[in-house]
Amino acid sequence: MHEEFLHYLWVNKKLPFTQLQTHLNESLEINHFGQYLQNAGPDIFNAQISINQQKWAGNIEIHIKSSDWYAHNHENDSKYDNVILHVVWENDMPVFRKDNSEIPTLELKKYVALSDIHSYKALTTSKTWINCENEIASTDTFVWNNWLETLFINRLERKSALIDERLEATNYDWEAVFFEMLAKNFGLNTNGDSFLQLAQSIPYIIIRKESFEIEKLEALFFGKLNMLEEDLYDDYYLKLKSNWEFLKIKYHIQEEFGLEPQFFKLRPDNFPTIRLSQLVHLISTKQNLFSQIILANSYEELKQLLKSETSLYWKKHYTFSKCSKEKTKRLTSQFIDLLIVNTIIPIKFSFSKSQGQLNIEELIHLLETIPSEKNTIVSKFLAFDVKATNAFQSQSLLELKNEFCNKNKCLKCAVALQLLKN
What we know:
Helix content: 40-55%
Shape: elongated
Oligomer: single chain
Mean pLDDT: 93
Strand content: 5-15%
Radius of gyration: 28 Å
InterPro entries: DUF2851 (IPR021272)
Largest sheet: 7 strands, mixed
Number of domains: 2
Pfam family, one: DUF2851
Protein name: DUF2851 family protein
C-alpha cells in the first residue's frame, strides 16, 4: 500500500463517507473534504468534519500506519497542532496531541473496495515502458486534449523558471537572457551547459558592442571557451587568437577553465566550432533579434529570423587547420524547429507573463504549425498508438514521460485517473 493511493481515495471521494466511524466507534461525517495543497505540513487543509455530531474544522493528515505520526516527528512540529483527523490504512497505535488528547483516527482498510485496490495495483505494476501502455490509446479524446494542454503549460512553467532566475540576475535584461537561452540550445545536450556558461560569463553589453564584426565575436567566444590555446599555424586561427588577446585586455576579461566544449560522438555539423560560428552569424546579422522574435507571430516569420550559417572559414573547416570539402553550413529546418520549441516559445511565454498578458493559446497554435520532434520518446509512444503530429503534442508527450511516467506519478495523471474511474 502507498500513501499516494490513500491521497487519491480521499481527494476523489472513493469512500462510503456516510457510513464512517472513528477508531473509537464514533460516528464520523465529512462535511468538507478540504484542500489537497501538497505543501509542507498536513496533507489536507481546511477540512470540516462532525464526530458524534460535534463539528470540527482544521487539517487532516494521511499515513499508511498511525505510528508514522511519530516516525515523522509530527508530535514536535507545530504545523500539525491543528490536525482534527488522522486518516490511516492501518491503526496500529493511538496518537496524541501535545495536550495529551487523542487524535480521532479513521482506518481506511475497513472501507476501501477490493476493486479499487485491484485497479490501482494493475495500473501501477511496472510494464515494459510506462504503466498504462496497454490502455493509454483508449483515453477519452476530451480528457486527453485537456491533459496535453496541462502538460504543455507545466513544461513551460518549468522552462521559464530558469529564465526568471536569469532575469533577476541580469537586472531584467531581456536581450541578455534571450542570448543565454539561445546559446544554451545552440550547444544542444552535449555542449549546452558550456555554451550557457559562455553566455553568462561575458557581459552582454560587450557582446552587443562587438556584434558588428563577426571575426571579433568569434574570437571572443572561441577564446572564452579555451579553444584558442594551441600552437597552430593557421592564418584564421592566429587572427582569432590575436583578436582574443586584444579583447581580453580591452574588456578586462578573465580566462575561464572547465568551459571547453566537447566534440566526442558528435556529428561534424554539430561540432561546437560550427554551432558557435552559426550563433555568431545569427546575432551579428540580425540586430535587435529579441524584439523581432517577440513581435513575430507565425512559424514562417520565426524561421526567416533564425536563418543562419557559418562564417567563410568554416565553410571549408570543421576544426581549426584541417581543411574539408567546401560546404555552406546553414542551420537546418530541424535545428531551427528545436530553437523555436526550446528557446523562442519559453521566452515568449515568460515575456508575455511579465507583461500580464498570458498567451497560451497563441503559443499552442504556433506549435501546432511546427512538425513533431523526432526522438526516442515520441517514437515509443507511437508504438502504443499515441501519435504526435505536431510540436505541441510532442512537447506534451515529453513532459508526460519525463515528469509523470518516469516518476510513477500515475495518480496525478489524467490518463490514469480516468482509467481508475472506468
